[in-house]
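Board notes (copied after class):
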Amino acid sequence: MSDERTEKPTLKRISKARSEGQVSKSQDLSSAVTLMLGLSILFAYFPYVFDRFKAISVALFTNLNPDLVTKENIWGFLSVYLSEIFTILLPIMAVMVFAGVLINYIQVGPLFSLKAIKPNFSKLTPMKLIQGFKKYFEVKSLVEFAKSLLKLAIVGGAGFSVINKHKLEILALLGAEPQVSLALMGKILFELIATICIILLILGIIDKKYQDYEYEKSLKMTKHEVKDERKNAEGDPKVKSHIRKEQMKFATQRMMSAVPQATVVVTNPTHYAVALSYDMEKAPAPQVVAKGIDFVAFKIKEIAEANNVPIVENPPLARTLYKIVPLDSIVPAELYVAVAEVLAFVYRTNKAKRPT
């Protein structure tokens, strides 16, 4: 059926969707990459972070005088330490923000659209709210819910697998030295986080492929829409035909207005007519000021007769002038002799003024 969306979206359709903020983007992929980079920086940065936190804690509790701490000055007292903690964590947060912006840029390219975040209060009507609630039971929403459950199951399974692999080592920590316990727990934690990040990255890549498919599917067009868009881009054939007719009409009127001042009209005698004008002061050779076939040729001859413009029958010359010499162009050199003979005949019979 013509109403089925079977056609790929055109560049215009895609451009319009982008301008409205509709793009193919995987939030899962963005989250996975951001988390991976953030945790990577955290692990690389961990010794420094640990030493700074340790120094802050020692300074805080060593110099802490409970008698000087009141409900009124507690925040002022802690602000120095909170500021120091923020300074420590700032590079990690900056890297995560940069990673989030970068992965989104890679996915959608340069795009800035306020339409996607512009509030639409018309959606707050009861009918719109009901329609919005129904969306939670649509296929797309159910698919997203299933994806979330599947992702949770996969990540949970991976986490359980890592911990289960080290269960004997964890049980052996009972009664072990704190340093040994912390070292092993750190190792297991690192392996757990790395495994989860890799899984999330793989799921994000798969989700990006799925989002690309859904995006292209949502933009697909019907054959009628493609036809209408092409018609709008190229112009309605009926309108274009009307414009061409008006242009031809205007050009014909302008051409006919030049016939009364022509020097001679060369004819076929019935099918072709070409009006020549020759003014030695304006052009080095005769110029075609009007030409036409059939009805137009008849009108040229009619105007020429009404204005006493000489008409000379020369079928070969008339056809050649019509075919090879554009309107308002000078006669080419290869036709000089033939045209000169016609003009000489006109001048001899005194049916045209001699050029000054």
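Comment from the instructor: The mean pLDDT is 78. The chain is about 65% helix and 5% strand.
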